[in-house]
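Format notes (please read before filing issues)

Several people have asked whether sequences and structure tokens are stored in separate files. They are not. Every record keeps both together, in the order shown below: the sequence lines, then the token lines. Line labels are part of the format and must not be stripped during preprocessing.
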Amino acid sequence: RGMLIVDRWSGMSPSAELITDLNNPSDYGLPVYYDVCTEASQNFRVHHSRCLRFIGRDLPLFEKQIEQYWGMSEIECVLDELQRYDYGMAGVADLISRANVLCMKEPMLAQMLSGVNMSQQQLTDYLSRMAAVSQAITTNGILAVGEEGEVFSNSYTFGGLSDVMRMQIMCLCGASGYPVSRLFGETQSGLSSSNEGDLQAYYDNADQERQQRDRPLMNKLIPII
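Then the structure lines:
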């Protein structure tokens, strides 16, 4: 008759009755029935022998019971590492924008900010003057300072940031199971370096997942076909 595809959020809930047949170890401890509610508001119960269960990554027993015998989402496995990588890239971008800061010495700065012997109008004029100075400074701009004033540049380097970002990339690849060459499109550099080993490990891992998770389901479906 065909196949009806549903998920845990579209009206499919497992029954409280569990499989206790020890001669069926692949389904032991799982729900016997599944109650399904279709988009046409049809309600019916399906026996587990008529279901192909794709649950995601398997969970420990107690957590699996809390999740009603569903597994972990593939996105959930990489979400924390992806957020760390996103924060790291945002931090690097912020550091680049602050890499070269132009500073100006003002001998009377503390007195002017404290308000001693200074009216509110003088303070407003000072702040307006500083705002005008910051807007006037360009790549080829000219800045006039007083006799005791001084302008200097405060810059720093980014030593070690590349190593940190590389470590975050490796953690993200490890959580997702994808090699760097496939997830980021980055090839290894060097005379004798290639991506064949990483890709082969990825293919072996994918084949192992097919054998463990998909083959039992196909063995149930193919004889029917």
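For reference, the curators noted about this record: The helical segments are 61-66, 74-97, 109-114, 120-136, 161-176, 180-183, 196-221. Residues 140 and 160 are 32 Å apart (CA to CA).
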